[in-house]
Amino acid sequence: MKIRNYTRVERRDAFLKENAKGVSIRVAISEEDGAQTLTMSIFELDPDGYTPLHEHSHEHAVFVLRGSGKMIDGKKEHILSKDDVVFVPANQKHQIKNTGDSVLTLINVVPICK
After folding, report:
1. Displacement of CA 113 from its chain's centroid (Å)
2. Mean pLDDT for the chain?
3. How many angstroms separate the CA atoms of 14 and 41, rounded?
4. Which of 12, 20, 109, 113 is the most buried (most CB within 10 A)?
5. pTM attached to this predicted model
């Protein structure tokens, strides 16, 4: 078992700067911790920050810890607020944008892809 406060985990840029703006990641649980099937990361989007519109071959789950924003699926925009949960199926286009005045903090859980 491993227990730690996520704010003590190294914060680094999550995406290439030309594809995103103001997005950082803290990898809270990974294979390095002994996880065999999942990775948990904390994403922090600065005000006006956004992830790239992208898709990948794995599904993932998102929990909005604090802040507000929107999830874009390539066609529609969905409002996000504190305590919302999102399931993104495999190969579904998606993008997250911070629409608030404070940091949008998300918990992201994905399978370990080998």
Report:
1. 16
2. 94
3. 10
4. 20
5. 0.92
In the block, residue with structure tokens 């607020």:
81
> Which candidate, 44, 52, 10, 49, places its Cα nearest to that of 27?
10
Residue 18's pLDDT is what? 75
- Structural domains counted in the chain: 1
Cα distance between residue 39 and residue 56, in whole Å: 15
Maximal CA-CA distance, the chain: 41
Residue 6 lies in a domain: no
Question: What is the average per-residue pLDDT within 41-70?
Answer: 96
Identify which has the larger pLDDT, 75 or 36. Answer: 36
- Could you tell me the sign of the dihedral formed by the alpha carbons of 92, 59, 50, 31, in that order? negative
Spell out where 1-114 has E strands.
Answer: 12-13, 21-29, 38-50, 60-66, 68-72, 77-81, 85-88, 95-98, 104-111
Supply the range of the domain harboring residue 99: 11-111
Length of the chain: 114
